[in-house]
Write a structure and sequence with these properties.
With about 260 residues, the chain is α/β, with parallel strands linked by helices. The chain is about 45% helix and about 15% strand. Strands 1-2-3-4-5-6-7-8 form an 8-stranded parallel sheet. The chain is globular, with a radius of gyration of 17 Å.
Length: about 260
């Protein structure tokens, strides 16, 4: 089986001592492709450098996390526009809304998100969307910008680390967004999440680690890394009642389509 980690933060300082070993462990675990998420301008060059060093394994997504939405300005958009056209860059993100873990006003987050989503359409790039405690507002923004349009590929983007309800999952799927499945799918108490994913169906799901965050059940409290993808895939397989091989094949195909990654 071959796997794809669609969301990792390997530029994080927690990987400074063994980043190359982490990438090698991913390959040994058959996690052959990784999208490195650089969610602030300070991280963009590092993600590009990682992609250039390992072009067969790593590609970059550049964005502005809602934690940094107050950095939004025209100059940032101009710089991102130039970098979005580079071959190493497969997406814009992560961008989004977080009403739980940041004090940046909602209005500031919404302005940055709407602008960057609109820009992604102009740049013909899929988006990586963060949403925590904000699905009602996210649905309004996505519907306004994407309803009635048809993506060039199968997806406009992905709702990273999906944590909404079953109706949220169906809304995002039907609008043309993939759903990111992370370590929380392995947590015993997350049956409502597993039910939402069952209703959405494997045809719109991709796997993520969000490394070094959100480790699966077997390593709770420890640093996460891309080699954990098979454990996340196994939990999704059990939740869906689908063979692990089928989950690996479907989620990898979905990810390749999502990021338009050459076969």
């Amino acid at each position: 089986m071959e796997w794809f980690d669609t969301h990792a933060h390997l530029g994080d300082g927690q990987f400074s001592a063994d980043r190359e070993a982490v990438l090698e462990r991913a390959l040994q675990s058959k996690v052959l492709k990784i999208v490195e998420i650089a969610d602030s301008p300070a991280e963009w060059e590092g993600a590009l450098a990682m992609s250039r060093a390992r072009p067969a394994q790593v590609r970059a997504s550049l964005g502005l996390h809602p934690y940094y939405a107050d950095q939004y300005c025209d100059e940032l958009v101009d710089d991102l526009a130039k970098k979005a056209g580079l071959p190493e860059v497969v997406a814009v993100g992560e961008i989004g809304l977080d009403y739980v873990k940041t004090e940046i006003p909602k209005e500031v987050q919404l302005k940055a998100l709407a602008s960057l989503l609109s820009a992604s359409l102009d740049w013909d790039k899929p988006v990586v969307v963060h949403c925590r405690g904000a699905y009602e507002d996210l649905r309004l923004v996505l519907e306004r910008l994407f309803r009635g349009k048809t993506p060039r590929g199968r997806y406009w983007g992905v709702v990273h680390c999906f944590s909404g309800t079953a109706p949220d999952a169906l809304f995002c799927r039907d609008l043309g967004f993939a759903l990111g499945v992370d370590g929380p799918v392995t947590y015993p108490k997350n049956e409502s999440l597993r039910q939402a994913l069952r209703e959405a169906g494997v045809e719109c799901l991709v796997l993520e680690t969000d490394s070094p965050y959100l480790p699966p059940q077997s390593s709770r409290g420890k640093r996460n890394e891309p080699a954990a993808i098979p454990e996340i895939g196994a939990a999704l397989s059990a939740a869906l009642g689908v063979a692990p091989e089928a989950v690996a094949a479907a989620t990898t195909k979905n990810a390749l389509d999502l990021f338009r990654w050459p076969r």
